[in-house]
Inverse folding.
């Protein structure tokens, strides 16, 4: 991981596709902070989607701690997760992102990635994480990015801007589920 000494907020206005692909291909264990049991909430279906794509998810919500969703146990905090976390996906508001990032930086081992969902951006949190060598992605959704790079999103008629002659990698199970 590259430590960033001179923080430049403009570098988070866009990300190279290769950076996002690398994150999605290398992380396996994701803590999703702000999980909701409400089926109409994005955090609910992003959790389900990522589990179906082979990621190990640790939903974080103190009010739901101890319950299971999609075979994944919900934890009250990042510190309660029993195993290593590769990526912290923040489904809370921008103001909460700094506190969550601080909590993530206290973990051992420290996660490799802090990912802030669509509409979530906290440059102070990003600066702290990057100073410790973490990769930071803000204002993006891993579900959308996975779908874009796997070609799955194309099934919906959405133009991904990706053209390839390669046969898509199919996921282990499910209809029209692709891997990366």
């Amino acid at each position: 991981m590259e430590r960033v000494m001179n923080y430049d907020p403009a570098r988070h206005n866009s990300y190279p596709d290769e950076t996002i692909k690398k994150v999605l291909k290398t992380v396996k264990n994701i803590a999703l902070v702000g999980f909701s049991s409400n089926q109409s909430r994005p955090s609910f279906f992003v959790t389900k989607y990522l589990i179906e794509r082979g990621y190990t998810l640790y939903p974080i919500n103190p009010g739901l701690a101890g319950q299971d969703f999609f075979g994944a146990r919900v934890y009250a905090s990042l510190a309660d997760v029993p195993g290593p976390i590769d990526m912290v996906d923040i489904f809370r508001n921008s103001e909460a992102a700094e506190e969550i990032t601080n909590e993530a930086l206290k973990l051992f081992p420290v996660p490799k990635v802090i990912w802030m969902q669509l509409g979530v951006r906290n440059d102070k949190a990003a600066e702290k994480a990057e100073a410790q060598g973490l990769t930071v992605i803000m204002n993006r959704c891993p579900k959308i990015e996975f779908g874009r790079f796997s070609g799955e999103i194309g099934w919906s008629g959405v133009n991904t801007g990706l053209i390839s002659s390669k046969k898509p990698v199919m996921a282990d199970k499910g209809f029209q589920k692709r891997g990366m």
